[in-house]
User: Which sequence fits this backbone?
RNA sequence: GCAGGGGUGGCUGAGGUGGUCAAAGGCGCCGGGCUUAAGAUCCGGUCCCGUAUGGGUUCGUGGGUUCGUAUCCCACCCCCUGCACCA
């Protein structure tokens, strides 16, 4: 074992990289660029395994691209605004700024200890005024364009976090961060008009390489739905009401109209009627409820008639207007036309309130138009019972279009596209975020802070713990109106921290620029991000916001990029086993290991679960690095599973990887001790190296990191072993092999690669070196590769047969005769392959065969049978290489004869003889089982 | 309910454009070399059967297409993820 390795030596290499400024990448002419990015972390104090995995993947890609000659932009920064720091500040009676800086310092050390190849010059942090001033500047620009605006609206309020939340941040009616209940509250808040970009956000998904599930998540969230808006006049009123529907073809079946209880018209219409009190009860109940409870109660459909009637736009029929608890105020128009015959919800509602149900569609063209509806028929159908002529008999899209056209003709309806996504609520009533750069003036209203006055810095003289801390800073609050100069009041809301992460990747392209948010040319050069790696949990928040923001900045003329991220890779979770009760279906903390299930008293087994504090199954990266080194941890993480798959942490597997590392550390020394000369196997190894390099590149180009690492850290070791086993021991060749091999090691275990590089006496650092390209495989090398491959596969089957054979012999086998398939079999194979490659049907080959010379004479029947039973299946089993081999000049007899001594040794035999089947020398009479590339063997 | 992704050998997990698949790799287990020994390492084995290189049964279940299917088609069952009375 080598004494080269100690965890400290890794730090020394890191220092050298740093001193050489290897990873400080600027734009160079005529070089391809590659932008590699990981989702920048929130700076909690400690790096966890999820970080380690995320960055190990990204670093491998960055190092690979660098070594392939790309200019690689690979930066790191911190998403350092946010509530955890503010909450910690309240608890510790400290300031979020100090807490954040402290945490950043410690997590930065830990990240650096892993040896990732970041350009640290470009490090950015969201809470730096030099960064967030641009958030503010963008915001004022958005205000000018009407993309940012203030509005009074019912919003999601988390009382635990004491702030509002965007729709994306409400998960199952609860706060995404603290899981507390979310209430609806009417408040004046700031919004960004994401829906304006909805169509582009949907279309863009087809142009980028995101995982299918992420695309589907985003499409769901954007929620495009085609339909129509239809206006209903209200009897005895100048007001009209608009509904949104995806099913205009059912318009003639409308027997009532339902409004959300909060719909503004509801209050107006019901006022003064006998139903007012009843409506008030429904309204109070619904509006006070958290959305979570509301959804739970929605399956009990309840409604109140509003005492008013709408006029059907096509028939003029009087239709009662209701308020219903199942209609959502903020979707569509907050009003629906109710068609109980063809909508389940309306059907239930109509049944319980005795409203007529009318059939206006039939499932099959000639069905009875008056058949009773036992339940709502929601599928598309043929129109029947239309009150007007010209509609009956229409189906599907035609039916919809006909109705919309009729409505449009009289100005009471239009085709529309409705989106589920709603404006992004960006204001927060918390301290630790970007202050919204607005001054409220009694006469001018909300006025954006002019660019020259930015940034609006967070004040330090604030009190935490009671409401919005910014409201406690007198110095902050007082501000003169930029427009008229009279005293105004500064906006105290801050921006959602997702604003910070919506453009940081652009800032990285020019992070040190104090004049501009980023230089346009630089941004255009580096963007978009070629490889973006992070967790799936950001699929609909961060990744939608960032795509939106990029497009919005493009439209401000700041750059020309349409999509921020070209390829997204969502890495899987890091899991570790934890006690698990099968019958109860519950996972328990590791404290319960070995004890009975706390619920059913049954025995607990183990099951892998996401690492978490509550389960106690976490592993500290720091400890692991200290014991095994960063390289070992990286190797394990990359090798344990594909990047996108979940992986299980395993201490024993980690130790196994550590052994591999130790073995590799000793490899240059071991090979240097070889004392042989150039030999036959050298050709093989040269060819093998070329093969391995090609496989490695292919794996890396598809981000199959597991395979790449397997090649670099496992397969090549096996190749060395095979080489020596076959008698190779040329130290000169070894050195050449090691030099190329070192590059492959360097993407996952860079410190190890540097050790090799220096032991090999190479100039400089391998992390800064490009990988030299290799010539293509020569015919001689190919021949050697083929010879060894066939020998290996022969040995494998010969060993199995040997066991069986020895049962028939008196004692252990002493000699073997290898019978190579007779030439006619090869001829048959070649002819069949050609026939099939030209598109021939296997069934018809029999007629070709009967014409062949080899199939004439008294062996005809035998040969025809051989085709059907043995050759036909075999012909398809040969891979491309084997097919080439069969047609090549490979002389199986010669190839095996050359290796006969080795084969004898491997099989523990005194002698091995190779003969051509059915030839003079073949005395065995056992050539029947021999196939091309797969000789028979007879033991004696 | 809707959408997306899955169900593979003792475990884990590749493959999946039909033939290179009894099915990679890892773990575990077994045997051998090396060693005083252990560990490490190297070599081999690890579905079942087998008087010789072969046969049988396997990739959630049941059908189908094909000379051939883990791979294609249909139906069903189960698991995960997201959205969810969205009109």
Assistant:
């Amino acid at each position: 074992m080598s004494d080269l390795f100690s965890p400290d030596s890794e730090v020394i290499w890191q220092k050298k990289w740093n001193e050489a400024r290897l990873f400080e990448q600027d734009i160079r002419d005529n070089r391809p660029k590659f932008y590699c990015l990981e989702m920048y972390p929130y700076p909690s104090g400690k790096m966890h395994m999820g970080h380690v995995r995320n960055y190990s993947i990204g670093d491998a890609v960055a190092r690979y691209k660098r070594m392939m000659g790309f200019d690689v932009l690979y930066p790191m920064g911190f998403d350092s605004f946010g509530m955890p720091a503010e909450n910690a500040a309240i608890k510790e009676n400290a300031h979020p700024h100090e807490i954040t800086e402290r945490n950043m310092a410690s997590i930065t050390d830990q990240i650096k200890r892993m040896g990732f190849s970041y350009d640290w010059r470009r490090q950015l942090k969201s809470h730096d005024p030099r960064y967030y001033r641009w958030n503010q500047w963008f915001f004022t620009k958005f205000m000018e364009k009407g993309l940012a605006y203030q509005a009074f609206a019912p919003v999601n309020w988390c009382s635990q976090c004491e702030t509002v939340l965007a729709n994306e941040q409400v998960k199952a009616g609860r706060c995404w961060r603290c899981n507390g209940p979310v209430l609806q509250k009417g408040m004046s808040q700031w919004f960004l008009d994401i829906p304006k970009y909805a169509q582009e956000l949907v279309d863009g998904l087809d142009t980028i390489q995101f995982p299918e599930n992420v695309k589907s998540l985003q499409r769901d969230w954007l929620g495009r739905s085609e339909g129509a808006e239809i206006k209903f006049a209200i009897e005895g009123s100048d007001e009209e009401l608009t509904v949104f529907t995806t099913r205009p073809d059912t318009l003639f079946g409308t027997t009532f109209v339902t409004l959300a209880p909060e719909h503004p018209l509801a209050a107006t219409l019901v006022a003064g009627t006998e139903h007012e009190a009843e409506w008030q009860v429904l309204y109070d109940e619904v509006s006070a409820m958290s959305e979570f409870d509301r959804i739970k109660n929605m399956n009990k459909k309840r409604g109140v008639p509003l005492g008013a009637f709408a006029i059907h736009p096509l028939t003029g029929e009087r239709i009662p207007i209701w308020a219903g608890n199942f209609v959502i105020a903020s979707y569509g128009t907050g009003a629906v036309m109710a068609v109980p015959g063809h909508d389940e919800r309306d059907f239930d509602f109509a049944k319980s309130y005795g409203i007529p149900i009318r059939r206006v569609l039939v499932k099959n063209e000639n069905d009875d138009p008056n058949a009773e509806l036992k339940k709502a028929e929601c599928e598309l159908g043929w129109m029947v019972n239309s009150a007007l002529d010209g509609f009956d008999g229409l189906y599907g899209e035609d039916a919809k279009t006909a109705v919309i056209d009729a409505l449009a003709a009289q100005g009471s309806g239009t085709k529309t596209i409705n989106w589920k996504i709603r404006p992004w609520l960006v204001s927060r009533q918390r301290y630790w975020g970007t202050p919204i750069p607005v001054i409220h003036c009694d006469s001018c209203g909300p006025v954006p802070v002019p660019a020259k006055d930015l940034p609006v810095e967070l004040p330090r003289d604030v009190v935490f713990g009671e409401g919005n801390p910014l409201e406690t800073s007198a110095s902050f609050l007082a501000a003169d109106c930029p427009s008229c100069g009279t005293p105004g009041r500064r906006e105290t809301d801050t921006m959602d921290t997702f604003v910070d992460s919506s453009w940081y990747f652009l800032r990285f392209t020019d992070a040190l620029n104090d004049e501009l948010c980023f230089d346009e040319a630089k941004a255009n050069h580096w963007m978009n991000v070629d490889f973006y790696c992070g967790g799936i949990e950001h699929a609909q928040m961060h990744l939608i916001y960032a795509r939106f923001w990029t497009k919005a900045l493009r439209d401000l003329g700041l750059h020309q990029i349409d999509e921020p991220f070209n390829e997204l890779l969502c890495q899987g979770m890091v899991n570790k086993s934890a006690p698990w009760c099968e019958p109860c279906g519950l996972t328990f903390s590791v404290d319960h290991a070995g004890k009975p299930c706390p619920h059913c008293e049954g025995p607990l087994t183990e099951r892998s679960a996401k690492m978490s504090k509550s389960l106690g199954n976490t592993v500290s990266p720091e400890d692991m690095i200290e014991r095994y080194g960063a390289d070992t941890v990286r190797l394990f993480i990359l090798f344990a599973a594909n990047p996108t798959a979940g992986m299980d942490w395993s201490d024993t597997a980690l130790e196994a990887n550590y052994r591999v590392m130790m073995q590799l550390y000793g490899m240059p020394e071991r090979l240097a001790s070889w004392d042989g000369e150039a030999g036959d196997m050298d050709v093989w190894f040269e060819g093998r190296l070329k093969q391995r390099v090609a496989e490695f590149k292919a794996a890396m180009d598809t981000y199959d990191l597991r395979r790449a690492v397997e090649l670099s850290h496992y397969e090549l070791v096996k190749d060395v072993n095979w080489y020596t086993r076959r008698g190779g021991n040329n130290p000169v060749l070894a050195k050449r092999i090691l030099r190329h091999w070192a590059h492959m090691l360097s993407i996952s275990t860079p410190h190890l690669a540097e050790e090799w590089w220096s032991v090999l006496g190479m100039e400089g650092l391998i992390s800064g070196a490009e990988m030299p390209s290799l010539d293509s495989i020569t015919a001689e090398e190919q021949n050697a590769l083929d010879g060894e491959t066939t020998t290996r596969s022969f040995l494998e089957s010969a060993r199995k047969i040997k066991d069986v054979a020895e049962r028939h012999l008196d004692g252990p086998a002493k000699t073997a005769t290898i019978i190579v398939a007779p030439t006619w079999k090869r001829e048959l194979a070649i002819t069949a392959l050609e026939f099939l490659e030209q598109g021939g049907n296997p069934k018809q080959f029999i007629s070709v065969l009967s014409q062949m010379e080899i199939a004439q004479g008294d062996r005809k029947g035998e040969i025809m049978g051989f085709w059907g039973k043995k050759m036909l299946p075999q012909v398809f089993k040969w891979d491309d290489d084997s097919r080439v081999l069969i047609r090549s000049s490979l002389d199986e007899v010669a190839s095996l004869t050359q290796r006969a001594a080795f084969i004898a040794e491997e099989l523990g035999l005194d002698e091995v003889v190779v003969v051509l089947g059915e030839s003079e020398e073949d005395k065995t009479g056992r050539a029947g089982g021999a196939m091309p590339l797969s000789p028979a063997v007879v033991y004696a």
Q: What stands out?
A: The mean pLDDT of chain A is 87. The longest strand of chain A covers residues 148-158. The CA atoms of residues 150 and 189 of chain A lie 5 Å apart.
